[in-house]
Amino acid sequence: MITPPAAAIDLNADLGEGFGRWTLTDDEALLSVVTSANVACGFHAGDPSIMRRVCELAAERGVRIGAQVSYRDLAGFGRRSMDVPAGELADEVAYQIGALEVFARAAGSRVSYVKPHGALYNRTVHDADQAGAVVAGVRLAAGSGATGGLPVLGLPGSLLLAAAEAAGLAPVPEAFADRAYTPAGTLVPRGEPGSVLHDPDAVVARAVRMAAEGAVTAADGSQVRVAARSLCLHGDARGRPGSPGGSARRWARPGPGGGVRVRTLVVGGEALLIELDSAAEVAALHAELLRRRDAGELGPVRDLVPAARTVLLDGVRDPAALGARIARWEVPPLTETEGPLVSIPVRYDGPDLEEVAERWG
Hints:
The chain has helices spanning 27-31, 48-60, 86-106, 118-126, 128-142, 159-166, 200-213, 279-294, 319-327, 353-360, and strands spanning 10-15, 18-19, 22-23, 36-40, 64-69, 111-116, 152-154, 171-176, 215-217, 223-225, 230-233, 248-254, 260-267, 271-275, 303-306, 310-314. The chain is an alpha/beta fold. The strands form 4 sheets. The chain has a 7-stranded parallel sheet. A 5-stranded antiparallel sheet has the order 12-13-14-16-15, with helices on both faces. Helix 3 (86-106) crosses helix 5 (128-142), helix 4 (118-126) crosses helix 5 and helix 5 packs across helix 6. It is globular, with a radius of gyration of 23 Å. It starts with 9 loop residues before the first strand and ends with a helix.
């Protein structure tokens, strides 16, 4: 197995944010990157057909399905703060979870967690009444006599997570790789300049630091601690990792045993560059790629080209999806044997070109 670094973290994104013929998020591209999908449940975006389609895609790719619940605010995309009575809000939260559960089950999956959206998310950071109503809705959706309910994603230190824990629900603190932070550890309001980051390299650098160091640089330059178990990427952010409009996409994926095993760079529409930490890891992954290709498990790949710290796969039909699959593999180490060092002269423009090409794929 390739030795992973110590950091591992879940990636979530808001999906299904459309209505009828209108769409905002590129769900297929994001589902090739994330491990958890926050699916809009019809109150801020999403309709029954969109919810069903996203659940099917998520189930096919092994991505967890989460209910992204909102105030009833289609016109304002759920970003307008509202004063909803606690009992009514609890009913609406349970309603949204139940609707999504129907489509998740039909796809062979289940709703795995709940996350508020937009204004409701921000309100539950400091409003005990609204936070308690969301938790009550999660408990209501669990059914009569249930002793628990679904995990709840929220901002670290929020009243929402405190209420969830007090009610016996699992609190899941999250951080935002593409949002600016205040020195207090809250999100800079979207109406302020610089509240959303659009540079993919900057977003990835922040995400890696959040996962590895548990820290982020706030808007004023101060350092803020972030104790997150999940990182959120906003599906409506321009230039996000996973955006099909970019020439390249870079992201790090946690493997099933924990940690980040490989780093992938999607180049153009048909090439995938996989970065590793050592030549031994390159050799191990290259051997596994050859084995799976010969077994028909890899899919169409025109060329496999190993180098000192990378493996290039060219002629790939869906490089983002393949990169996500490879990142979840358990790669066995190559067996080392002792013997004499043999030097083999190679001329890449000579008569041995065909032999070299056959040896390295």
